[in-house]
Structure formats: structure tokens, C-alpha cells
Amino acid sequence: MDDLIISCPFCSKEFPLSSGVVDHLRKDISEEIEKEIADQIRKENEEKVDELIEQLQKKSEQIDDFKKIEKDLRIKNQELSEKEKDIELVILRRLDEEKVKIEESVIRKITEEHRFKDKEKDKQIDDYKKTLEELNSKLE
Prior knowledge:
By secondary structure, this protein is mainly α.
């Protein structure tokens, strides 16, 4: 390759550009381009990694939120189950109380009926006695 003549942009002095210098410049430019490409790829990869890390953090937060929701639901379910058991127990107690009240009421009613019947019988007996006494007195 023929040596090219170039001029200095500062002093305007001309000098030959040898193929060694051109090769060296090409190598420097190639290394610089490779470095820029590598930097760009590294930057893109860092951005992708940052995006993936952010997505992973969001997923992790969502998982934590879901775990909290599940925990809260399980606690509420357990509380509801306990309340249901308590309500069943209260209902059974009330039923027992009502049963006792009904039994007492029935016993009182039966007792009152017996008293009433006993009084009626006593009255009949008394009436019979009076009638008997009256008859006895008439007979005498």
C-alpha cells in the first residue's frame, strides 16, 4: 500500500501515513469499537438484569401479599369455625333451658290439675257427707 500523505489539523504540516500506523489506527479503532459494543451489550444486559430483578422483587412481594392474605383467611376461617361451635353450644344450652322450662311448666300444670281434681273430689265428698248427714238427720 502506498503511504498516504496527511496533514496535521493543528499545524497543517504534512507527513506520510505508513501502513503500520494505519494498521495501528485500525487496531485502536477496532478495539475502541469492540469496547463500545461490549459496553453497550453490558449496559443492555445490566438493564435486563435490573428489569428481571425488579420483576423478581414484584413477584416476591406478590407472593408475600398472597401468603398474608392466605394467613388472614385461615385465621378468619378458624375464628368462624370457633364462632360456629360457640353458637352451636349456645343453641344447645338454650334448648336445654327451654326443655327444663317446658318440663317445669308441664309439671306445674299437671300438679294444678291434680289439685283441682282433688279439690273437686274433696268438695264432692263434703257434699256427699252433707247430703248423708241431712238424710241421716231426716231419718232420725
